[in-house]
Amino acid sequence: MQKPKRSAIFQAFAAALAALTLCLTAGNGQALAQEAQIKRTIEGRYGVKVEGVTRTPYAGLYEVVVAGDERSIIYADEKASFLFSGQVVDIRTRRNRTQERLDKLAVIKFDELPLDIAIRQVRGNGRRVVAMFSDPYCGFCKQLDQQLVKMDDVTIYTFLYPILRKEESPEISARIWCAPDRAKAYIDLMVHNRQPPKVAGCTAPVDKWLALGEKLNVRATPVSYVASGARIVGARFDELQRAMDEASKGP
User: Fold this and answer.
1) In the chain, which residue ranges form alpha helices assigned H by DSSP?
2) Pairwise CA distance, residues 78 & 134, whole Å
3) Which among 101, 116, 125, 238 would be 20 to 30 A from 200, CA to CA?
4) Rg, the chain, Cα only
5) How far apart are CA 51 and CA 74, in angstroms?
């Protein structure tokens, strides 16, 4: 039996590839249109700002990322006829898919942080790096600092974030920033409960701290970022330490 010519085989393969590409393109177009329609429907009916809509690989649900004081995720069917608010957990692996997505959405580019307006502490070789948003009147911040102060081989950048008390928080933050040794003044207050001294003729970058926190959607303290850009909310020291160790290993 005569074998087909090589050129004919190539032509057939090219035709099949073109047909597959056309199908994939059409499918992608339909998916994008569906996601856009869900976005319009939810924004129109509920008056919220939707950052994005993505089809999930589970239960035919669409993930809807809603902007606000705190970014949140809700789920919708393909027509946005039903909405589901809650946590999606993979029973087989026990992974919280919703929290994983929120953590991924909160990742930042650590190198772009304005570290010149942060208080810097370095102990040992400083290989483990963290940036922390802290209010001087935050009890959970004090708990976290009392753990962090015991760590070796760490670099800590603290952004004072005076949001808890309208007048007192900015004042004490400014006194810490204007102290001769900012790191010492901060640790003295948060770990040893020693008030920082008043310093005349000094201006602290309070507006810049607040603007940075607003940009990163920091709504409470403490909020920490490790060198990989991953975000840890609250005084979860063990989790933060693991994230710092992992990030220090590099890519």
Assistant:
1) 6-46, 97-105, 139-148, 168-178, 182-192, 206-215, 237-248
2) 42
3) 116
4) 25
5) 12
Q: What is the mean pLDDT of the chain?
A: 89
3-state secondary structure of 107: coil
Of 88-92, 94-98, 99-103, 226-230, where does mean pLDDT reach its minimum? Answer: 99-103
Q: Tell whether 1 is covered by a domain.
A: no
- Three-class DSSP category at 223: strand
* Helices 168-178, 182-192: crossing angle, 10 deg rounding: 130
pLDDT range class, residue 194, cuts 50, 70, 90: very high
> Which pLDDT score is estimated for 69?
66
d(CA 127, CA 222): 21
pLDDT above 70: residue 209: yes
* CATH value at residue 209: 3.40.30.10
Q: How far is CA 58 from CA 29, 62, 98, 183, in A?
A: 21, 9, 12, 48
Quote the number of domains for the chain: 2
Domain that holds residue 193: 110-248
Query: Is 54 in contact with 35 (CB distance < 8 Å)?
Result: yes
In three-state secondary structure terms, 233 is strand
Together in a domain, 96 and 120: no
Report whether 144 contacts 237 (CB < 8 A): yes
Helices 182-192 and 139-148 cross at an angle (nearest 10°) of 110
Rounded Cα distance between 60 and 67, Å, is 23
Judge if 87 and 184 occupy the same domain: no
Q: How far apart are CA 166 and CA 146, in angstroms?
A: 25
pLDDT at 16 over 80: no
Map tokens 């902007």 to a residue.
Answer: 67
Q: What is the pTM of this model?
A: 0.74
